[in-house]
Every structure is written in structure tokens, then in C-alpha cells.
């Protein structure tokens, strides 16, 4: 178990990673019928694939928040 205190954006990075992997899994499932020669999924399945990009943005926001909170200028002002 880690004794390191949680950073400002750690939770956002974790949630972003989960959303990203759900989107990646949806992308794999959506592309599979194209290789298997079966009928493609409906359009909503392709919309779920957008979770991959959303997860990346959420994780990036967590990284930016961590950097912002731990910047030397802000640490000196405290």
C-alpha cells in the first residue's frame, strides 16, 4: 500500500484511464465484424468508441491539474 499523498489530478487520471479502456474495448468490438465478414453494428456502437478520446481528455486534464497545483510559482506563493 502506498503512503504517498494523492495529488490534485490523480483521480481524474484514474477515471480517464478507465473511460479510455472502455472506449478501446468498444473499438475492438466494433471493428471485429468488419474482419469477420458479419453485419456491422448500428451507429450507436461507433459513438461509444468516442469514449476513447474522452478518456484521453479527462486524463490529460488530470495531468494538467497536477502540474498546475505543483508548479514552483504556486508553491512559492503558499
From TrEMBL:
Transmembrane stretches, start-end: 12-37, 43-64
Keywords, alphabetical: Membrane, Transmembrane, Transmembrane helix
Name of the protein in its database record: Integral membrane protein
Organism: Streptomyces mutomycini
High-level lineage: Bacteria, Bacillati, Actinomycetota, Actinomycetes, Kitasatosporales
